Amino acid sequence: MPVKNIVSWTAFLTAYAQNGEIGKARKVFDEMPQKSVATWNAMITGYVRNGYRVDEGYELFCGMPERNAVSYAVMITGFVRTGRLSVGKRLYSEMPESWRDPVASNALMNGYLKMGELEEGVRVFEGMVERDVVSWSSMIDGYCKKGRIAEARELFENAPERNVVSWTAMIDGYLKVGQWDFGFELFTGMRRDEHVKLNSTTLTVIIEACPNLREGIQVHGLVLSMGFENDVFLCNSIVTMYCRFGCMDAANKIFGSMNKKDLVSWNSMIAGYVQNNGIQEAYTLFKKMPERDTISWTTMVVGFSNKGRMKESIGLFNEMPRKDDVAWTAIISGFLSNGGYKESFQWFIQMVREAVRPNAVTLSSLLSASSGLGVLNKGQQIHAHVVKMDMELEISVQNSLVSMYAKCGNIGGAYSIFTSIDAPNVVSMNSMITGFAQHGFGNEALELFRKMQVKGYEPNEITFLGVLSACVHVGLVEEGWDYFRSMTSVYQIEPGPDHYACMVDLLGRAGLLKEARDLIHSMSCNPHSGVWGALLSASSMYMNLDLAKLAAEHLFELEPDSATPYVVLSNIYSIAGLRENEDELRMSMKTQGVKKNPGRSWITRN
Q: What pLDDT was estimated at residue 589?
């Protein structure tokens, strides 16, 4: 039998480590009569790659009689992957500079990029004497993930060598910011490069970004022509793509043709049915699943609650073998979306009793429930949970707090939260603008909007609803017109029925009834009851019988069970002395079976 040498011992050790048998690898290491630097590196690598047992690897690293560049690179990589960037940085600074590039530098640079610290990553990159294709690809990806596409493209063009990762990162960068033409143009250029071979990751990026079905079908054809039809990862993306465009027959055909399906395949198909109103098909598939995970169960819980079928939703939730914070949030949100505000709080209490830690979405949902109930003390209790759980700096929670306090009538509390947000986003701005507008602080709402514009925020449809509502409260007709027109001329936002309702209300309150009527007739979308309701209210205010009748007739069609248009038009007839018309309208109301709802007053008792 041949005598083992250091090389063969190290090969045995490496084989055990690569197969996940780290205990056997360590036994071989301890029994070795002699060890080289490569042996020590192999054992350290085994610890780092198997369950991120970095501390055990570091213990060996500290005991090494001698080290080389690989020793440091492995340890830095280990600390970076486990999020201990500061330790990796210290090792990097301790190692000889001549050993840093490119492997150790790449590891540290990638650590910074994954933590979102782009400038630190750039500093390492620019300090490198020797760079490889990994260095360039990592920096291109880092710039793209921050949306700094121009700088990424400059690096891409200057890279001495590009591989499939470089191309994919740059293509993905364009697609993520909506620059489809540049992304697909670059993809075409990649296909022409004979030195780069397309892989399933690149094609998945393209499929996920397809802006329409036609493009999706073309990429699907490319996948088939390149022989990737049996790639599970890629097939899952194609199934998801067809589901996204509502082509469930095509998605089901791909799913059925897959030789091998994993959990993602089943979950993608079930989610597609849920998103496309096929809850029964989703449930049938769910029951056929060979195995299920939390995502499978939660998708079905959401699917049934979206259909208002809370009984089935609760039944599935109770059957779940393991319930995580996402599942609990799904059932709580289900009650909320179906108007069960009180039930959502009851389930939250149960969640806390089960020792499941709520996440930011859970708390945001409960804050929305407080807004729906209009009960401030409930919202304040959730706010206390937010503080207790150190989530007061979560932007989604902060935005929900602003909205909750505003909707519960505490505009001062809303503004206090708003001003405490370090980096408010457009949702933060919208919540505060809407809060000001709803409580009659029109000037404050418009001032905040002006600040929003100066700071470079991009307003959306919700922003303009708040702005136009503010103009209504302050009576700023000309300014309202300017803001309304700027939606299309400056921001390319098509006004919706709610925006028109605000404008009709604004014009109507100012007595500009003819302009309000003309605006309705110019609408590119169908006016809803809010639009005609605003015109009816203004017609009543200014006793314009013709327009009141026009508005009321449309409301009779849109809301046949509502007594409001009958009552308003009847009052106008009464004031105008048209008793015959008034009696006729009341008779019509009785014939249609429309009943006037009695007034109510809600008082919350402590």
A: 85
